[in-house]
Amino acid sequence: MAERNYTRQLATIISIDAVGFSRLMGLDDESAVAAFEERRDIIADSCSTFGGRTFGDAGDSIMAEFGSPIEALRAAFDFQDRIVALNSSVAEAMRMPFRVGINTGDVIVRDGRLYGDDVNIAARIQEFAPHGGLTVSETTWHHVKDHTAAEFIDLGEFMLKNIALPVRVLIAGRIGSGLSPAPLVAAVPPVNGQQKLSSKGPPAIAVLPFQGDGGERDVGYMADGIAEDIIYGLSNSRWLSVIAKSSSFQFRDDTLGTRVIGNALGARYIVSGTLMRNGGHIRLSTSLADVSNGRLVWSQRFDRDLVDIFSLRDQIGEEIVSILDKEVDRAEQARTFQVPWESLETWQLVRRGRWHMNRRTRGDTEIALEFFEKAYREDPNSSAVLNELAWWYFWRAWLRFGDSDDLDKVQQYARKALLMDSLDARPHAHLGVTDIMRGQPGSAVDHLEEALHINPSFAFARSAMGSARLLLGDAAGAIPFFIDTERLSPFDLYRFHNLGELAAAYSFVEDWPSAISTADRSLDLSPGYFYARFLKIGALARSGRKEEARRELTIFTTRHPDFSEQRVRWIPFADKAANEFLLANFELAR
Description:
Elements: E1 7-18, H1 21-27, H2 29-49, E2 53-58, E3 61-66, H3 69-88, E4 98-110, E5 113-115, H4 117-126, E6 134-137, H5 138-144, E7 150-158, E8 167-174, E9 204-207, E10 211-213, H6 217-236, E11 241-242, H7 245-248, H8 258-265, E12 269-278, E13 281-290, E14 295-305, H9 309-335, H10 346-359, H11 362-378, H12 383-399, H13 404-420, H14 425-437, H15 441-454, H16 459-471, H17 475-488, H18 495-508, H19 512-525, H20 530-542, H21 546-559, H22 566-569, H23 577-587
Parallel strand pairs: 4-6, 9-11, 9-12, 10-12
Antiparallel strand pairs: 1-3, 1-4, 2-3, 4-5, 6-8, 7-8, 12-13, 13-14
Helix pairs in contact: 1-2, 2-3, 6-9, 9-10, 10-11, 10-12, 11-12, 12-13, 12-14, 13-14, 14-15, 14-16, 15-16, 16-17, 16-18, 17-18, 18-19, 18-20, 19-20, 20-21, 20-23
Organism: Mesorhizobium qingshengii
Pfam families: Guanylate_cyc
Protein name: Adenylate/guanylate cyclase domain-containing protein
């Protein structure tokens, strides 16, 4: 038997991490290193004073070992006090707070280093600590709760990365000191027993108050206003559960981190942002985080000229709502692949079906229908399921140039969805596009106006409204709707269609350069989309670029050998002269 060269012992481990070290390194790396080393010496001194030792420094992280959980907590309070005092003496931009996690358990000791799950748990729970604060595990809490002048806020149980069992996490603060946890987590409800975010069922999303950077009052008002608009807009999407402003706006201090805030609010996703003003310009940086794994799902920066502050606020809010709607949907689709097919719930069946639908292949759309139909059998009154079935049959009707039976099914599912939820914009939009396909753009406008009244951020309804106006002969009035759709949904899977409609509108107002460039953008997304290339050929011919038009015509006839003029004559323009206008443009290239 090999000689054992390690020992096991019970120990309390402190994991200590510098907050904002990378940011300070970017500002002034030498000053950042000096600041870290100064604070590291304070930590080492406090740990030594209370009978512990530091070990395993790695970058901006420090570990410490104690024989007594009580002394470990006292040491952490001591060095946090000293670091707070030191930070108060330097410029705010150069302050370096620390987060601390403390866990007690069995460790392996070898050559002065410590190993084991209980070491890893200390590091994991440190991520839940507020800046300048500390967290303890339940095992440490049992040892110290009656022996120190400390108070605790229970955050509940969490599944930690690479840790088999859930771990209960508490924020600790010294009674009567600035390190009390109560002001930081006043909105966190006490947790008795296990609390974990469910991986099943419709997700909840929380929008935190956006931070106004710059100290100007109107920036703060605008930041709050945009966050409020996003809450309102997301609630109109109907498929997401949105945490009320009265709850999410209690978390103005973001030092707790998204995982703690999300757990407190019961939200799977957290939206946060910062607004800055510089003269006549504003910059909004916003992000979406998945609380369950801490992953940043999406982030984007919006730079705008500050002209009409109220109009600008509405535009940015609508744009963010539309993007968030799709990003959360995408994340939820991916999440369903963690669940076996036979275990999928109704909600998950819908998301998995949407994943296949978005692939836009014949095989995938058939698989999508299987998921939607299974979900319908399980819950025939679910508005989410009914809307997906309406969309599925509309998509097939569009591919078949207005199949009447499919359009009947769109109407059937959409009307039932309205009975289930009269404030859902999607059924109104589905009824509107059905009227468009049936050559009734006038009645389509009524449905689409209702959809946009309910949800102004609904990009699909905006695009459909543009199509209805275009079919009614108002090409100039249609263009703003298509442009708005581009703004609201810049990464939409069906964007090629919206751009094709915009190219048609530019053709009718005889803006040939815009028609050509817009058709090109549509073809970049879907090279096989016949309508965009058809419009491009006509626009090139009208522009006098006959040679380019003939080259495009060669590509067109190769890709669409079965094309006939009837395909264009089918388009339900109210005035059939519009169909002949487009065909005449195309004929110029022959």
